[in-house]
Specification:
single chain, alpha/beta, 7-stranded mixed beta sheet, binds zinc ion
């Protein structure tokens, strides 16, 4: 019997592009992927390069929730181990935004000349699902609302036995402030992933790119009272030293820049 309600693991918290090598070992260079495990469910938020080395369980039900289809959130998907097994079923959920079906959109990215195989040609059975919120994965309730990001991005909320995880990657605050609907949606979460890609002095040059700042993250934490906050979507140019220095000034023991293999048991 598990002694937790949900197990949360960071597999990739880098934004925009994967990075590696000296200066990137502490926080990690894999792009967006977070794993939630409970009961017989293995749920992945996003399929960036972090999903490539996911500790995949042969017998688990596999679900992938895609916040949106920007390439940093998808680039690990063709390497996702369950896709290589004939008897495996993989459920992919992504909100419909642009014209076309999710299946066609994914197959449009992974096809020659960009990639030798179409997603369709992998051995696993893949279900392409455009979700209507809320829905259930086993006994995990999944809710979602749209975040402010070019082309859109889903803010997913996973709830099981009163424990709550919210993923708010690829979100940019607005000058009007955080909408009440969003504050209510996130309020009291046990874990919130918040996009803090740009420090304040870099933000000005990247306004409208769809990412936020640590200062805005702390403001949002005060508004929502979340218990643990992870800053995510680290800028690919920010090395360990830079992220250490940004974390040091936060002055809040419950706010951290997410590191590869961070685990929280709820
Ligand atoms: Zn991104
Ligand atoms: Zn994006």
């Amino acid at each position: 019997m598990e002694d937790y309600t949900m197990k949360f693991t960071v597999l990739g918290a880098r934004g925009s592009a994967p990075v590696g090598g000296e200066g990137f070992n502490k926080y990690g260079g894999n792009t967006s992927c977070y794993m939630i495990e409970c009961g017989n469910e293995q749920i992945f938020l996003d399929a960036g390069t972090g999903i490539m080395k996911a500790p995949y369980k042969q017998d688990a039900n596999i679900t992938v929730l895609l916040t949106h289809l920007h390439i940093d959130h998808l680039i690990g998907f063709p390497f996702f181990k369950p896709l290589f097994f004939k008897e495996k079923r993989v459920k992919i959920y992504s909100v419909k935004r642009e014209n076309g079906l999710l299946k066609d959109q994914l197959n449009g990215l992974f096809k020659p000349p960009f990639w030798p195989l179409r997603i369709d040609e992998y051995r696993a059975n893949i279900d392409y699902i455009e979700p209507v919120f809320p829905f259930k994965i086993g006994d995990v309730e999944v809710d979602g609302i749209e975040g402010n990001h070019p082309g859109g991005s889903t803010i997913f909320k996973l709830t099981r036995n009163g424990k709550v995880i919210v993923c708010m990657t690829d979100y940019e605050h607005t000058k009007e402030g955080f909408p009440q609907e969003l504050i209510d949606f996130v309020k009291g979460a046990d874990i919130l992933l918040y996009d803090a890609q740009y420090k304040n002095d870099d933000y000005e040059a990247h306004k409208g790119f769809g990412h936020s700042t640590p200062e805005k993250g702390l403001e949002f934490k005060r508004l929502t009272g979340v218990k643990n906050m992870f800053f995510v979507h680290h800028d690919p140019y920010y090395d360990d030293e830079m992220l250490d220095s940004l974390e040091a000034v936060l002055n809040d023991p419950n706010v951290h820049y997410a590191k590869y293999k961070d685990v929280i048991l709820l």
